[in-house]
Amino acid sequence: GPEEGRGHACVPHFGDRTRAFLKIQEGCNFPCSYCIIPSVRGPSRSVPVEVVVEDFKALLDAGYREVVLTGVNSGEYGKDTGFRGGLAGLVERLLAVPGRYRIRLNSLEPRAVTPGIRTLMRREAALAKHLQIPLQSGSDAVLRAMRRNYRAAFYEEQLRALAEEVPGVGIGADVLVGFPTESTADFDATLALLERSPIAFVHAFTYSPRPGTAAAAMPGIPQREAAERTRRVRVLGERKHLAFAARFVGRPLSALTLAPSPDRGRALTENFLHVALPRPEGPNRFVTVTLRSAGSEGFAAELVEA
Ligand code: SF4
Protein backbone atom coordinates (compact mmCIF):
# COMPACT_ATOMS: atom_id res chain seq x y z
CA GLY A 1 0.00 0.00 0.00
CA PRO A 2 1.04 3.63 -0.29
CA GLU A 3 3.64 4.61 2.23
CA GLU A 4 5.47 7.83 2.91
CA GLY A 5 8.93 7.64 1.39
CA ARG A 6 11.62 7.81 4.02
CA GLY A 7 15.33 8.22 3.93
CA HIS A 8 17.56 5.44 5.03
CA ALA A 9 17.74 4.23 8.59
CA CYS A 10 19.16 6.08 11.58
CA VAL A 11 16.54 8.84 11.79
CA PRO A 12 14.72 9.02 15.14
CA HIS A 13 11.19 9.26 13.75
CA PHE A 14 9.53 8.80 17.11
CA GLY A 15 11.76 11.19 19.04
CA ASP A 16 12.50 8.91 21.98
CA ARG A 17 14.89 6.33 20.51
CA THR A 18 12.56 3.46 21.16
CA ARG A 19 11.25 2.73 17.68
CA ALA A 20 12.76 3.40 14.26
CA PHE A 21 11.75 2.84 10.65
CA LEU A 22 14.09 0.97 8.35
CA LYS A 23 13.39 1.20 4.64
CA ILE A 24 13.96 -2.08 2.85
CA GLN A 25 12.24 -1.47 -0.47
CA GLU A 26 10.76 1.29 -2.60
CA GLY A 27 8.64 1.61 -5.73
CA CYS A 28 5.93 -0.71 -6.98
CA ASN A 29 5.05 -2.56 -10.20
CA PHE A 30 1.47 -3.38 -9.30
CA PRO A 31 -1.27 -2.06 -11.60
CA CYS A 32 -3.79 -0.70 -9.05
CA SER A 33 -6.04 1.58 -11.08
CA TYR A 34 -6.36 4.28 -8.38
CA CYS A 35 -2.69 4.54 -7.44
CA ILE A 36 -0.15 7.05 -8.71
CA ILE A 37 2.83 5.49 -6.94
CA PRO A 38 4.08 3.21 -9.76
CA SER A 39 4.25 6.14 -12.18
CA VAL A 40 5.92 8.58 -9.77
CA ARG A 41 8.18 6.24 -7.81
CA GLY A 42 9.02 3.70 -10.48
CA PRO A 43 9.32 -0.08 -10.21
CA SER A 44 10.14 -2.06 -7.09
CA ARG A 45 13.73 -1.76 -5.90
CA SER A 46 15.07 -3.64 -2.89
CA VAL A 47 17.74 -2.37 -0.54
CA PRO A 48 20.47 -5.07 -0.67
CA VAL A 49 20.38 -7.55 2.20
CA GLU A 50 23.83 -6.58 3.47
CA VAL A 51 22.84 -2.91 3.58
CA VAL A 52 19.63 -3.67 5.49
CA VAL A 53 21.57 -5.78 7.99
CA GLU A 54 24.15 -3.02 8.51
CA ASP A 55 21.43 -0.37 8.90
CA PHE A 56 19.63 -2.62 11.36
CA LYS A 57 22.77 -3.09 13.47
CA ALA A 58 23.40 0.67 13.41
CA LEU A 59 19.90 1.31 14.75
CA LEU A 60 20.41 -1.22 17.54
CA ASP A 61 23.76 0.38 18.36
CA ALA A 62 22.02 3.76 18.51
CA GLY A 63 19.71 2.35 21.18
CA TYR A 64 16.53 1.55 19.28
CA ARG A 65 14.70 -1.50 20.51
CA GLU A 66 12.00 -1.78 17.90
CA VAL A 67 12.71 -1.58 14.18
CA VAL A 68 9.80 -1.30 11.75
CA LEU A 69 10.63 -2.58 8.27
CA THR A 70 9.01 -0.35 5.68
CA GLY A 71 8.55 -0.32 1.95
CA VAL A 72 5.98 0.72 -0.61
CA ASN A 73 5.36 -2.96 -1.38
CA SER A 74 7.63 -4.93 0.98
CA GLY A 75 6.32 -8.29 -0.18
CA GLU A 76 8.19 -7.70 -3.45
CA TYR A 77 11.45 -7.67 -1.51
CA GLY A 78 14.27 -9.38 -3.35
CA LYS A 79 12.47 -9.98 -6.64
CA ASP A 80 14.47 -7.28 -8.44
CA THR A 81 17.82 -8.28 -6.93
CA GLY A 82 17.38 -12.03 -7.24
CA PHE A 83 17.53 -12.56 -3.47
CA ARG A 84 15.80 -15.92 -3.33
CA GLY A 85 14.66 -15.81 0.26
CA GLY A 86 12.36 -12.84 -0.30
CA LEU A 87 11.03 -10.91 2.67
CA ALA A 88 10.98 -13.97 4.95
CA GLY A 89 14.62 -14.63 4.09
CA LEU A 90 15.52 -11.04 4.92
CA VAL A 91 13.73 -11.24 8.26
CA GLU A 92 15.60 -14.45 9.07
CA ARG A 93 18.88 -12.70 8.34
CA LEU A 94 17.93 -9.89 10.72
CA LEU A 95 16.79 -12.30 13.42
CA ALA A 96 20.27 -13.86 13.33
CA VAL A 97 21.69 -10.56 14.65
CA PRO A 98 22.30 -10.94 18.39
CA GLY A 99 20.63 -8.59 20.85
CA ARG A 100 17.33 -7.80 22.50
CA TYR A 101 15.06 -6.15 19.96
CA ARG A 102 11.77 -6.43 18.20
CA ILE A 103 11.18 -6.35 14.46
CA ARG A 104 7.84 -5.22 13.11
CA LEU A 105 6.59 -5.68 9.58
CA ASN A 106 4.62 -2.72 8.39
CA SER A 107 2.19 -3.51 5.61
CA LEU A 108 1.99 -6.51 3.31
CA GLU A 109 -0.17 -7.10 0.27
CA PRO A 110 -2.51 -10.09 0.71
CA ARG A 111 -0.43 -12.37 -1.51
CA ALA A 112 2.74 -11.51 0.39
CA VAL A 113 1.48 -13.08 3.62
CA THR A 114 3.20 -16.35 2.78
CA PRO A 115 3.47 -19.51 4.88
CA GLY A 116 7.09 -18.49 5.52
CA ILE A 117 6.03 -15.15 7.00
CA ARG A 118 3.33 -16.80 9.11
CA THR A 119 5.78 -19.38 10.42
CA LEU A 120 8.30 -16.73 11.44
CA MET A 121 5.61 -14.71 13.17
CA ARG A 122 4.44 -17.74 15.08
CA ARG A 123 7.89 -19.00 16.02
CA GLU A 124 10.01 -15.90 16.59
CA ALA A 125 9.31 -13.89 19.73
CA ALA A 126 11.40 -11.05 18.27
CA LEU A 127 9.02 -10.63 15.32
CA ALA A 128 5.97 -8.66 16.42
CA LYS A 129 2.64 -10.40 15.99
CA HIS A 130 1.17 -7.55 14.00
CA LEU A 131 0.53 -6.98 10.31
CA GLN A 132 -1.30 -4.44 8.21
CA ILE A 133 -2.88 -6.08 5.14
CA PRO A 134 -4.62 -3.80 2.62
CA LEU A 135 -8.12 -5.01 1.76
CA GLN A 136 -9.36 -1.93 -0.12
CA SER A 137 -12.75 -3.51 -0.87
CA GLY A 138 -14.75 -6.58 0.11
CA SER A 139 -16.44 -6.69 -3.31
CA ASP A 140 -14.90 -8.73 -6.12
CA ALA A 141 -16.35 -6.38 -8.72
CA VAL A 142 -14.65 -3.40 -7.09
CA LEU A 143 -11.39 -5.31 -6.55
CA ARG A 144 -11.41 -6.10 -10.28
CA ALA A 145 -12.04 -2.46 -11.19
CA MET A 146 -9.22 -1.51 -8.83
CA ARG A 147 -7.03 -4.10 -10.60
CA ARG A 148 -6.13 -5.70 -7.31
CA ASN A 149 -4.63 -9.18 -7.72
CA TYR A 150 -6.90 -11.14 -5.37
CA ARG A 151 -10.54 -11.73 -4.61
CA ALA A 152 -12.29 -11.06 -1.33
CA ALA A 153 -12.42 -14.77 -0.48
CA PHE A 154 -8.63 -15.02 -0.86
CA TYR A 155 -8.15 -12.09 1.51
CA GLU A 156 -10.42 -13.73 4.05
CA GLU A 157 -8.58 -17.01 3.71
CA GLN A 158 -5.25 -15.26 4.28
CA LEU A 159 -6.58 -13.62 7.44
CA ARG A 160 -8.06 -16.86 8.70
CA ALA A 161 -4.75 -18.69 8.22
CA LEU A 162 -2.76 -15.91 9.90
CA ALA A 163 -5.09 -15.65 12.88
CA GLU A 164 -5.12 -19.41 13.30
CA GLU A 165 -1.37 -19.92 13.02
CA VAL A 166 -0.37 -16.85 15.04
CA PRO A 167 -2.55 -16.67 18.15
CA GLY A 168 -3.07 -13.11 19.38
CA VAL A 169 -1.88 -11.51 16.13
CA GLY A 170 -3.08 -7.94 15.59
CA ILE A 171 -4.26 -7.65 12.00
CA GLY A 172 -4.97 -4.29 10.41
CA ALA A 173 -6.97 -3.71 7.23
CA ASP A 174 -6.76 -0.67 4.95
CA VAL A 175 -10.01 0.11 3.18
CA LEU A 176 -10.41 2.47 0.24
CA VAL A 177 -13.99 3.70 0.47
CA GLY A 178 -16.06 5.26 -2.30
CA PHE A 179 -14.26 3.90 -5.35
CA PRO A 180 -16.10 5.19 -8.48
CA THR A 181 -17.79 1.84 -9.21
CA GLU A 182 -18.65 1.07 -5.57
CA SER A 183 -22.40 0.39 -5.33
CA THR A 184 -24.22 0.21 -2.01
CA ALA A 185 -24.17 -3.60 -2.36
CA ASP A 186 -20.39 -3.50 -2.91
CA PHE A 187 -20.00 -1.32 0.15
CA ASP A 188 -22.19 -3.63 2.23
CA ALA A 189 -19.94 -6.52 1.17
CA THR A 190 -16.95 -4.60 2.53
CA LEU A 191 -18.68 -3.94 5.85
CA ALA A 192 -19.74 -7.59 6.12
CA LEU A 193 -16.23 -8.86 5.42
CA LEU A 194 -14.72 -6.53 8.02
CA GLU A 195 -17.38 -7.55 10.51
CA ARG A 196 -16.74 -11.28 10.28
CA SER A 197 -12.93 -11.17 9.92
CA PRO A 198 -10.32 -11.31 12.70
CA ILE A 199 -9.38 -7.66 12.27
CA ALA A 200 -8.01 -5.51 15.09
CA PHE A 201 -7.40 -2.22 13.28
CA VAL A 202 -9.19 -0.62 10.36
CA HIS A 203 -7.70 2.26 8.41
CA ALA A 204 -10.35 3.81 6.20
CA PHE A 205 -9.46 6.20 3.41
CA THR A 206 -11.95 8.03 1.22
CA TYR A 207 -11.23 7.58 -2.46
CA SER A 208 -10.15 10.67 -4.34
CA PRO A 209 -9.07 10.62 -7.98
CA ARG A 210 -5.37 10.90 -8.74
CA PRO A 211 -4.85 12.57 -12.12
CA GLY A 212 -3.18 10.24 -14.57
CA THR A 213 -4.59 7.04 -13.07
CA ALA A 214 -7.10 4.81 -14.86
CA ALA A 215 -9.68 5.29 -12.12
CA ALA A 216 -9.55 9.09 -12.46
CA ALA A 217 -11.43 8.79 -15.76
CA MET A 218 -14.33 6.90 -14.18
CA PRO A 219 -17.47 8.81 -13.22
CA GLY A 220 -17.61 8.72 -9.44
CA ILE A 221 -20.12 8.63 -6.62
CA PRO A 222 -21.08 11.80 -4.73
CA GLN A 223 -18.42 12.99 -2.31
CA ARG A 224 -20.81 13.22 0.65
CA GLU A 225 -21.91 9.62 0.04
CA ALA A 226 -18.27 8.51 0.03
CA ALA A 227 -17.64 10.48 3.23
CA GLU A 228 -20.65 8.88 4.92
CA ARG A 229 -19.46 5.39 3.94
CA THR A 230 -16.01 6.19 5.31
CA ARG A 231 -17.56 7.27 8.58
CA ARG A 232 -19.41 3.96 8.83
CA VAL A 233 -16.22 1.98 8.22
CA ARG A 234 -14.46 4.00 10.95
CA VAL A 235 -17.25 3.34 13.45
CA LEU A 236 -17.05 -0.37 12.68
CA GLY A 237 -13.25 -0.22 12.92
CA GLU A 238 -13.36 1.38 16.35
CA ARG A 239 -15.73 -1.32 17.56
CA LYS A 240 -13.50 -4.07 16.15
CA HIS A 241 -10.47 -2.49 17.82
CA LEU A 242 -12.13 -2.42 21.23
CA ALA A 243 -13.37 -5.99 20.83
CA PHE A 244 -9.86 -7.12 19.91
CA ALA A 245 -8.32 -5.40 22.93
CA ALA A 246 -11.01 -6.78 25.24
CA ARG A 247 -9.87 -10.32 24.40
CA PHE A 248 -6.59 -9.59 26.18
CA VAL A 249 -7.93 -8.17 29.43
CA GLY A 250 -6.30 -10.12 32.27
CA ARG A 251 -3.72 -11.70 29.98
CA PRO A 252 0.03 -11.01 29.91
CA LEU A 253 1.39 -9.21 26.87
CA SER A 254 4.93 -8.49 25.78
CA ALA A 255 5.45 -4.73 25.43
CA LEU A 256 8.06 -2.03 24.94
CA THR A 257 7.85 1.03 27.17
CA LEU A 258 7.66 4.33 25.29
CA ALA A 259 8.41 7.86 26.50
CA PRO A 260 6.04 8.42 29.46
CA SER A 261 3.67 11.31 29.93
CA PRO A 262 4.15 13.29 33.20
CA ASP A 263 1.67 11.24 35.20
CA ARG A 264 1.66 7.80 33.61
CA GLY A 265 3.66 5.32 31.61
CA ARG A 266 3.07 4.24 28.06
CA ALA A 267 3.86 0.98 26.32
CA LEU A 268 3.28 -0.64 22.97
CA THR A 269 2.44 -4.34 22.97
CA GLU A 270 3.78 -6.67 20.35
CA ASN A 271 0.32 -6.90 18.80
CA PHE A 272 0.17 -3.09 18.58
CA LEU A 273 -2.02 -2.08 21.49
CA HIS A 274 -1.04 1.28 22.96
CA VAL A 275 -1.50 0.87 26.70
CA ALA A 276 -1.28 3.26 29.65
CA LEU A 277 0.58 2.28 32.82
CA PRO A 278 -0.31 3.65 36.29
CA ARG A 279 3.06 5.38 36.81
CA PRO A 280 5.65 6.88 34.48
CA GLU A 281 8.18 4.22 33.50
CA GLY A 282 11.51 4.75 31.81
CA PRO A 283 11.26 4.27 28.04
CA ASN A 284 12.79 1.56 25.92
CA ARG A 285 12.45 -1.45 28.18
CA PHE A 286 10.89 -4.76 27.25
CA VAL A 287 8.29 -5.59 29.87
CA THR A 288 5.32 -7.83 30.42
CA VAL A 289 2.07 -6.01 31.05
CA THR A 290 -1.39 -7.19 31.96
CA LEU A 291 -4.29 -5.36 30.40
CA ARG A 292 -6.77 -4.29 33.09
CA SER A 293 -9.42 -2.58 31.02
CA ALA A 294 -10.09 -1.77 27.40
CA GLY A 295 -12.60 0.97 26.68
CA SER A 296 -13.01 3.89 24.33
CA GLU A 297 -11.14 6.08 26.87
CA GLY A 298 -8.04 3.91 26.42
CA PHE A 299 -6.35 0.70 27.44
CA ALA A 300 -5.13 0.53 31.03
CA ALA A 301 -2.44 -1.99 31.91
CA GLU A 302 -0.18 -2.93 34.81
CA LEU A 303 3.45 -3.84 34.78
CA VAL A 304 3.84 -7.45 35.84
CA GLU A 305 7.48 -7.93 35.03
CA ALA A 306 10.33 -5.61 34.20
S1 SF4 B 1 0.29 -2.25 -4.44
FE1 SF4 B 1 -1.17 -0.97 -5.58
S2 SF4 B 1 -1.81 0.59 -4.04
FE2 SF4 B 1 0.10 -0.32 -3.26
S3 SF4 B 1 1.72 1.02 -4.05
FE3 SF4 B 1 1.49 -0.66 -5.53
S4 SF4 B 1 0.08 0.14 -7.09
FE4 SF4 B 1 -0.12 1.47 -5.27
Would you mind describing this structure in some detail?
This protein has 306 residues and is α/β, with parallel strands linked by helices. The protein folds into three domains: 1-128, 2-Layer Sandwich (Transcription Regulator spoIIAA); 129-247, Transcription Regulator spoIIAA; 252-305, Beta Barrel (OB fold (Dihydrolipoamide Acetyltransferase, E2P)). Helices cover 31% and strands 24% of the residues. It has eight helices and 13 strands. The chain has a five-stranded mixed beta barrel. α7 (184-196) packs parallel to α8. The radius of gyration is 20 Å and the shape is globular. It binds iron/sulfur cluster. Residues 1-2, 28, 30, 32, 35, 37-38, 72-73, 109 line the site of iron/sulfur cluster.
**The CATH topology of the largest domain, please?**
Transcription Regulator spoIIAA
Q: Shape, please? A: globular
What integer value in Å does the Rg equal?
Answer: 20 Å
In terms of per-residue confidence, which ranges show pLDDT below 50 for 5 or more consecutive residues?
1-13
Mean pLDDT: 94
CATH class assignment of the largest domain: Alpha Beta
| Strand fraction | 15-25%
The computed structural class is alpha/beta
Terminus-to-terminus distance: 36 Å
Count of helix runs: 8
Q: Strand order within the widest sheet?
A: 9-10-11-13-12
Reading the helices and strands in chain order gives EEHEHEHEHEHHEHEHEEEEE
What percentage of residues falls in helices of 4 or more residues?
A: 25-40%
Largest sheet entry: 5 strands, mixed, barrel
CATH architecture tag of the largest domain: 2-Layer Sandwich
Q: How many domains make up the coordinates? A: 3
